[in-house]
Amino acid sequence: MMVSSSSSSWAELALLFFVAVVAHTANGDDHLSAGYYAKTCPNVESVVWSVMASRVGGGRMAPAVLRLFFHDCFVHGCDASVLLDATPFSEGEKDAEPNTSLTGFTVIDEIKSALERDCPATVSCADVLALASRDAVVLLGGPTWNMPLGRKDSRSAADKKFTRAHLPSPNDNLAELVRMFGELGLDARDMTALSGAHTVGMANCKHYRGRVYGTSDTKYNIDPSFAESRRQMCPLQGPSGDAGKAPFDVTTPMKFDNAYYRDLVAHQGLLNSDQALYGGGGVDNLVEMYSTDGDAFGRDFAKAMVKMGNISPPKGMPTEVRLQCSRANY
Description:
By secondary structure, the protein is mainly alpha-helical. Helix content is 47%, strand content 3%. The protein is globular.
């Protein structure tokens, strides 16, 4: 059967368009840049800031949003997979044990809805989360930085087993932390600076009980008075169970500063994985520097956040710009 040259040309164009779309969708490694939305959604940063300032401010939701970004990037890169709800065909990362205490999802949804009104189907949930985490730090009194943009959203989440294996544990030692961060292209300095995110936020009793009672397999020096005060919030047994939460930093728990490192030097790290950074290990010098030089910590934290934010999904993973952060487009 003969086909007209006009029909053939249209078919070829359609095929080329389909191939281009599929290649873009499957690649997920577009070059990131701070001006990525300069023409397509120029108000993206002001929209994110407006919602964060009104919904979060310097309150407890700010550390929650920051934590979301960490837990997203550590599992298959910064692809907003942590925001996906489970489906009959796919588990959700948010349902894995380390993530069951995550909050802040409604804030991200609100930002995404506002952006869909301004510039539909343009800004990825992964970029929303990246910008929101930066603004959370700023709202808590911390540094700011130019966040490169252009991430894409994955169409599926990792399973629970993979998620658990790729998130740091409250009892990790220094070698394990260095290894886990290193697998993501983050060196020991990045790891030490990023750990400073624990200068804000709180931990559940079950994550620090073993440290303050001396019953965990991993043991680091702990200030006796600090241990006693934490035991008051976290009974070894009793009706409160694991409900007792404690701030990582007792003195300024809602201020993004360098007090976390001063706590480590004083052997008052809340988690074993916190105190692992100080006490004879290879990053003692960094901890001591950050404990006395808040500006140095702020600079290194900002650099490390950009570096972590550049972690891409695995090559070949299908990606898109989700219209709703909790589910794939179709």
